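Lab notebook, bench 4. The sequencing result for the construct came back, and we need a structural model before the next group meeting so we can plan mutations. Quick request posted to the team channel:

Model the 3D structure of this chain.
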Amino acid sequence: MPIKPRNKVSVSFSMAGMSDVVFLLLIFFMITSTLIHPTALKLLLPRGTQQTSARPVTTVSITPDIRFFVEDRQVDFENLEAVLIERIGDETDIYISIHADENVPWKHVVDVLNIANRNQFRVTVATRPR
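Done. Here's the predicted structure in token form:
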């Protein structure tokens, strides 16, 4: 009487478990990607050739529809100086970076420069490379 093994080893590979894992990962990444909100403003900066090594303490952004932001917080122009003074505090050697869209009239950039001049802040203007 020949002895037959009871458990036969199957040579085929089932992809059912692998497809479940792939779909679970897909759902996970879709959910987590919708929870991330970018805080960057979409500005088209003017072109420039100079680079600076100064590290700004804060940034002032001016959007094409003339809205002012200190970092990612929208601020009215009337309150801009007070918010900058509050943000900077007692720090010395202060640099402020101005990020203005290339379509913003220079009048608004000069207004921010005047605020910086009154409070003796140093200013850098952000540009994109040529």
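The CA atoms of residues 61 and 99 lie 5 Å apart.
Will bring this to the meeting.
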